[in-house]
Amino acid sequence: MSEISNQLESLSYKAQQIANEASHLASSVAETSGGHGDFIIFGITVLVLACFVGYYVVWSVTPALHSPLMGVTNAISSVIIVGALLAAGPVDSNISKYFGLVAVTLAAVNIFGGFVVTNRMLSMFKKKQ
Amino acid sequence: MSTLTTAAYLVSSVLFILSLRGLSHPSTARRGNFLGILGMTIAIVTTLSNPGVLSYKEIGIAFLIGGLIGTSIAVKIQMTALPQLVAAFHSLVGLAAVFVAASAYYNPSAFNIGTVGSIPMGSLIEMSIGTAIGAVTFTGSIIAFGKLQGFVSGNPLVFKGQHFINLLLGLGIIALIVKFCIDQNQELFWLIVFASFVIGVLLIVPIGGADMPVIVSMLNSYSGWAAAGIGFTLSNNLLIITGALVGSSGAILSYIMCKGMNRSFLNVLLGGFGGEQAASAGGVKDDRQAKQGNAADAAFMMKNSKTIIIVPGYGMAVAQAQHALREMGDLLKAAGAEVRYAIHPVAGRMPGHMNVLLAEANVPYDEVLELDEINRDFSETDVAFVIGANDVTNPAAKTDKTSAIYGMPILDVENAGQVFFVKRGMASGYAGVQNELFFRDNTLMLFGDAKKVCEDIIKGLEN
């Protein structure tokens, strides 16, 4: 009896050790990837699915409106301003912030220019009276 | 990123998708544009509420300056200059991507991607790819803008070993990216930017003016991929989704344009089409005489016809003839004719260019039809009025296997009872191919500036 209980004890000790090692390994993996490794796969998933959405949505655009389509896509590609705002956000001034501010200006030209010119184009399309 | 922020970004992604969806019909298109504006507003406000974003004053000033410039350009621009405007705007997206990536490189903590000198490998790869695409988009779009605006010659610039140099540069950029991801060296970062600037120029210079619809669409696509690349650096799904939408939109438009010319995308990219090459194609001197008519003849004949199809091309845009053309159409309609417009997919210098110009001149969109919709009707049409178009009507595309445009879908104007060609002279079109329609019995050439000819016909109709 006592033999078996001894064996059990050593077994449970070993199991404990393995569990410890495993958790160490897991945490070191998490450290090296910084949680970012997960995002790449996740991001690629989103990218591929969005390409499919884009494919079907764009094919349904009538050829007559291909110019406005370029206007809108041009404006929304300036969503890059999200990155520019984060770059320009910090209080202390450094080169990084100035780059961000330049990017904010460039993206703003595009956002306003793109949406305004598209609106101008679209307001001209009229039905037969 | 907090749950609320993520949710707000999701909302604006969905709004962007709906905004493109709205363009499926002219009646819903304006609402689509509004949804796009709404999506962008949500994205910006959400980002501004990020705890890391504090310098509201500077951002406000930058945003205001950009907004004012963008709005004033967009309000003033002439509709005939749309292609170069779009090219110019694409270049800004590319440059903005480069600046955002540079900013992330110098201050990675603002983006939660480590600290200077110890940015994780994944972020470096994404950052450098985003930078390279952005830089190519920037200079490529500038050259496209220059060609469309006339600052740079529209003729293809071809030199020996061009493609080899491009290949070397491309491989060089890949090598630089690999080295940069290992060393994180700042010189390498700027070398990537510089090499991409150069390849952007080299890629576009060999491409001729009339291939610009493909190139403008392609650069549209690139600007999307650049945004998606930055989206990976920021771990931001909104940028990835939007980038993918824009990227696939541009790619599909390029595909449609290539199909409209029956040329492969690679063939367009390799360039050298039209221009110099064209001269040799016209080696055989044509001594046939084309019948020449005047505006009064045309006015008389059109007044007495029941059905008229107008085929506009880039020449109409150059001459700003769309308003005079519409006035002519109105008079003919008043005289009892049915007037419609036929648009070839590659007419003009950007996808849908002709539709916008006709809409500007108040032509109702239901009178403007695409190639597939109207091509069968030419055989039952009294008059085809071709104004500023040439290659897209050339029957050689169907019959002459040796022709540069063989296989290109064309508008069958030859089947109409009478064909009028409004042209400045007998010069061949962009593809450098002679159009044998000019010598047919049922063709009458109306030489002169497109706008002037239309005005003369209007006078003839009024008498």
Characteristics:
heterodimer; A: 129 residues; 81% helix; elongated; B: 463 residues; alpha/beta; six-stranded parallel sheet; 59% helix
Structure description:
The complex is a heterodimer of chains A (129) and B (463). Chain A has 129 residues and is mainly alpha-helical. Chain A is 81% helix and 0% strand. Chain A contains 5 helices and no strands. In chain A, helix 3 (66-76) packs antiparallel against helix 5 (95-124) and helix 4 (81-88) runs antiparallel to helix 5. The longest helix of chain A has 32 residues, at 2-33. The radius of gyration of chain A is 28 Å and the shape is elongated. The N and C termini of chain A lie far apart (100 Å). With 463 residues, chain B is an alpha/beta fold. Chain B is elongated and about 75 Å long. In chain B, 59% of the residues lie in helices and 7% in strands. The model of chain B is unreliable at 275-284 (pLDDT under 50). Chain B has helices spanning 3-21, 26-48, 56-76, 82-106, 121-149, 162-183, 186-204, 212-233, 237-261, 265-270, 276-281, 295-303, 314-318, 322-334, 353-360, 371-374, 396-399, 450-462, and strands at residues 307-312, 338-343, 368-370, 383-387, 418-423, 443-447. Chain B is built from 18 helices and 6 strands. In chain B, helix 17 (396-399) links the parallel strand 4 (383-387) and strand 5. The longest helix of chain B is centred in the N-terminal third of the chain and has 29 residues, at 121-149. In chain B, helix 1 (3-21) runs parallel beside helix 9. At the A-B interface, helix 2, helix 3, helix 4 and helix 5 of A face helix 1, helix 2, helix 3, helix 4 and helix 8 of B.
